[in-house]
């Protein structure tokens, strides 16, 4: 997000039948996985670029296939303050996810190496998933990345040598 101008956002407005619930749940999980900002019931937003537009176009198709209605919009918030509020909400959601990874990494640091390595691989995968939906990286991102990197035996050996 630039510091002085309001950016373009891609919005998905959708409605789905209550029953069957499986398609509705599937759509919600996909929206959560890509890190949308929930603006209201059936209205989500992402910063506009080719990738986010494509994601929301695909999800709109799924909604239509499930006998729902969906429209994808390109829009700008009316003010920079509104845009910052949306971006801050998205950053706060990612910060909570990074905090969880950081806590898991800190707990894993005391584990024996084989278990620590399993946790490290799982947390690296989790970080990759979070990074893909992290449009406004919070400070917690670097802390979580470093904590997971410290689980690797080579990193631990380097730290012990410099201590």
From TrEMBL:
<dbReference type="Pfam" id="PF20229">
    <property type="entry name" value="ChrB_N"/>
</dbReference>
<dbReference type="InterPro" id="IPR046858">
    <property type="entry name" value="ChrB_N"/>
</dbReference>
<feature type="compositionally biased region" description="Basic and acidic residues">
    <location>
        <begin position="143"/>
        <end position="163"/>
    </location>
</feature>
<feature type="region of interest" description="Disordered">
    <location>
        <begin position="135"/>
        <end position="163"/>
    </location>
</feature>
<feature type="domain" description="ChrB N-terminal">
    <location>
        <begin position="24"/>
        <end position="148"/>
    </location>
</feature>
<protein>
    <submittedName>
        <fullName>Chromate resistance protein ChrB</fullName>
    </submittedName>
</protein>
